[in-house]
Design goal:
Helix content of chain A: 25-40%
Structural class of chain A: alpha/beta
Radius of gyration of chain A: 29 Å
Largest interface: A-B, 89 and 91 residues
Oligomer: homodimer
């Protein structure tokens, strides 16, 4: 039994090697795939780094990674050229000699022969293996992966191209990692909230968190805020989905209780999906009249597959004439209250509802900016109304941010007003 | 003169803070933006790391970063909650006391007051500043950035949301970094192309690249393809903008020559901006009738500030009845050709143009998927028409990809058809 067997890895650090990954247009995406596979077998990623093809920085990063994680995965830098330094740096840091692996050379040679090519001598570098390492064959390329156990630490080297890396790592998980982990995996739940600020949500949720982090099966929590939306991520390590649910289920319920009705989703659905599902359950259809959001509300609703079942139409009435022509908003009403007013939003919502013969009509009018604001109605002022056969509701908002942010927040608020009202229906409308 | 002034930074290390960035579904994208801006002023990124909201690992990563780069940028972890540890860890590592900044508290309070809210006490944390640091105001959020000079090292803290981070960093570059750097900078030009595949563009551009990479002032090229759009990035290192232009200018012209008219922008403008500028120059207005794109074309057009000058209206006619009601598309035409057909797209474009009294009408109808396809009209089939007083043009496309990808490609193709036709006008219409 090696040290590694006694201490199955709980944390991983991923190092992506390649100078091109430090330019503005390239990004390491392998770590997302690796993280998904690692989490499935209960290994958390505690850090990631990207370094260029440069020996000294890579060595320092590897030392840093080995200090902080049980398992270090290095991707890239296994090619045949002088630029490719991963093998040498890892061997050097772990104090292992690099030796040519006969079987690996033969596999390389066979790969070239199969393509009627002679193996360039330079490719022999790809068969260099730190003493004691296991070669992980690469079915899709010339650079094999490597598996090294160094005391209680484990180091895995993988080639950079995703189509080469992925099958090698799938095999590593199935044959080497999964059998040695304790069967724990990471389970996640996500709550999505709108209509509250990050601090409001945190103030309500914080007292709950502290209970969970100290329990037998501690729950890790993260709060993530963007304009118009807050996400709460909960995760636990557990052996089975039942065990995870026993811990996460009550936690999600407790959060929903303190935050409802601001929580719109506990299952990863987007707000437009939630609204769509509510409409579908009620066999109701919707039509949207937008000014400042410029079609964004309708575009989001129709991002959902099958939305043609309940989205009847949308109109973007940017000009006052369009508001009158397409929605029947009286010119006098616009003159009296201004185009950005709750009165006009209500007339827009009612107008589209009646003309489209739908259950739910939505009207949005506002000032997205950066120009067009006044002292009374600054940039970010948005009036939103929802009209149903039972009547209408309207509200005036003041959003901050740039044009796209105001547009997004307004679309979020409009969808949320529809959601909240539909939820109040005692029983779905037949 | 501080140490920093004597040694302008040549290398940067970027640390993204946030446990959500270590999950399989989130990625740090701020570093790409930061890298582009840093390269422009001659600073290379020598490494990047992602760490969770965890004090000890962040402290170790910061120490590692400070050892390897002149400039360390930390993004995220500046929120008001207990989770947000960046401020404290940086102050701790640099041995600086954290003090509340009166002006920052006032700015925060004013921000809440402007929204007619009371500042929660918890937000005071966002006004804590390591002694000697400069506060970088955040126009789009509550977390200000921070600028710290520590001997010859420079540390910058920025909030995580891209729309907050970007304006702060633009100001940092313009006011603080650029004046202190010297020597060579990286200069970039970007061509945006639509209506061609990556291999088509590459085949045409490749013969040109090889000439440039071997010259005295070699041009680095990158091709970046997403659905419906290809970007060509060219960069050179040069001391002055004249020197860079002498090299990049002819290269851009040569590429435009072989790729035109598929190149829609050589100055970073989006396709909706380009179309908007063409409309404005011609004093023409536009109205859009959309089916499968569900409002996306109109939403993109209205993302451009000032677009209310030329966007008259949009309609999203998801149902056949809406097509007839709002656009006057004859029911018989839909029955004969089907709702997804060039004939219906033309009727939609002409219908909206006449009803809105505008110069340009656009009609888009198609099958975004994942269901609704037939053998004759598979998922991804989209008919697009543009109608002007001089007549109409229409085309049928077959896009691949998922629902949102089909929607985006269709919106791209519709805007591009408008662009190409407007470009043909001999002189702007008065």
């Amino acid at each position: 039994m090696t040290g590694f067997d006694r201490h199955p890895p709980a944390s991983a650090y991923i190092v992506a090697v390649g100078s091109e990954l430090l330019t503005p247009s390239r990004q390491d995406t392998n770590s997302l795939f690796l993280t998904a596979r690692l989490n499935e077998i209960g290994i958390e990623v505690c850090g990631k780094a990207v370094v260029g093809d440069e020996r000294e920085t890579l060595a320092a990063t590897l030392r840093h990674a080995l200090e902080h994680a049980d398992l270090v995965i290095l991707t890239g830098g296994l090619g045949p050229t002088e630029d490719d330094v991963t093998r040498e740096v890892v061997a050097g840091e772990l104090g292992l000699a690099l030796e040519e692996d006969g079987a690996a050379v033969e596999r390389l040679r066979a790969r070239f022969t199969a393509r009627r090519m002679t193996m360039p001598e330079i490719n022999r570098r790809q068969a260099l293996v730190p003493r004691g390492a296991t070669v992980l064959p690469n079915p899709n390329g010339t650079a094999p992966g490597l598996w090294l156990e160094a005391g209680e630490r484990l180091v895995i080297l993988l080639p950079g191209p995703p189509l080469e890396l992925q099958p090698i790592f799938e095999a590593v998980v199935a044959e080497r990692l999964r059998p040695r982990t304790r069967g724990l995996r990471v389970w996640r739940r996500e709550l999505r909230v709108t209509g509250r600020t990050e601090s409001q949500v945190d103030e309500l949720a914080q007292p709950l968190y502290s209970r969970w982090t100290s329990g037998a099966c501690p729950i890790a929590t993260t709060i993530l805020a963007t304009f118009g939306q807050i996400e709460l991520h909960l995760s636990v390590r557990a052996a089975t989905s039942d065990e995870a649910a026993a811990s996460l289920g009550p936690a999600v319920s407790a959060l929903v209780e303190v935050l409802a009705p601001a929580v719109y989703s506990v299952d990863g659905r987007s707000l437009e999906q939630v609204v769509g599902d509510l409409l579908r359950e009620r066999r109701a259809s919707i039509a949207v009249a937008e000014s400042c959001t410029g079609g964004l509300v309708t575009s989001r609703l129709t991002d959902v597959p099958g939305s043609s079942d309940y989205v009847e139409r949308g109109v973007v009435t940017y000009s006052n004439r369009a508001k009158t022509d397409l929605l029947g908003v009286p010119e006098a009403l616009i003159a009296e209250h201004g185009a950005v007013s709750e009165a006009v939003a209500v007339a827009m919502a009612a107008g589209i509802r009646q003309r489209a013969c739908v259950e739910v009509g939505v009207g949005v009018t506002g000032i997205a900016g950066p120009t067009g604001g006044t002292a009374d109605k600054p940039v970010g002022t948005v009036a939103i109304a929802v009209s149903r056969s039972a009547g209408h509701r309207s509200r005036r908002f003041l959003f901050v941010g740039r044009r796209e942010q105001v547009k997004f927040q307004a679309s979020q608020a409009a969808l949320d007003m529809v959601r909240r009202w539909l939820l109040e229906d005692v029983s779905p409308v037949a």
